[in-house]
Design a protein that fits this description.
Structural class: mainly alpha
Strand content: under 5%
Number of helices: 9
Number of strands: 0
Helix content: 55-70%
Largest sheet: none
């Protein structure tokens, strides 16, 4: 059982291992219930029952279900980053940004298809939190700028962050379209997304 990172939506960060494991169970239950019933039917009480913890344990970490779902989205981003990092570790370092882009997109698609709760919450797109720097796609673009800058031999400056933000916004729109057309993601639309990203990033990064 892997503890969740210290999400910014937490009322209180877990200190002891038992507390971290309880938080993980709460977020796992939240993800399962999102798949089963959707966000509108989600409740802190239902999460507590599914996780097998007192309702007070849920309120110890979260003030409401929106904060809980946002913490799940932040955990999704952490896990996504870890998975991309692990895959890139096993690729040829000379492969370039195209390999990195395919890895990022493939991992996102895999989580979209398999990670509990991800289809609804992903990185927070369904639950915006307001400030520009906290918008989900901006968080993803900033994370990718840091993660991939060394791999593509570029400085993670404002230009690179803007480039990734455009790419992330584009991919996000087209992937959501693909999953509206088909429950598993329409492969033709996904391929169109790959080609569009390659054309845009090729103009900027080559």
């Amino acid at each position: 059982m892997k503890p969740v990172s210290q999400a910014t939506s937490l009322r209180r960060a877990p200190v002891q291992r038992r507390s971290a494991e309880r938080l993980t169970r709460i977020l796992d239950a939240c993800a399962d219930l999102l798949d089963e019933a959707g966000y509108d039917a989600l409740s802190t009480r239902a999460v507590a029952l599914r996780a097998g913890v007192p309702i007070g344990s849920v309120y110890r970490f979260f003030g409401n279900k929106r904060a809980m779902a946002d913490a799940l989205a932040e955990r999704n981003l952490d896990r996504f980053t870890e998975r991309v990092t692990e895959r890139l570790r096993h690729t040829d370092g000379e492969a370039g940004w195209r390999t990195a882009m395919d890895t990022v997109l493939d991992e996102y698609l895999d989580m979209k298809r398999t990670a509990p709760g991800f289809a609804l919450v992903d990185f927070g797109n369904q639950i915006p939190v307001g400030a520009r720097h906290a918008e989900p796609n901006t968080r993803v673009a900033d994370r990718l700028s840091q993660l991939l800058s060394g791999y593509i031999d570029r400085t993670p400056d404002e230009d690179l962050r803007r480039t990734f933000l455009v790419a992330v916004e584009t991919a996000d729109t087209l992937v959501h379209l693909a999953f509206r057309v088909s429950p598993e993601g329409d492969e033709r639309i996904i391929q169109e997304a790959r080609e569009l990203l390659r054309a845009y990033l090729g103009r900027v990064l080559d």
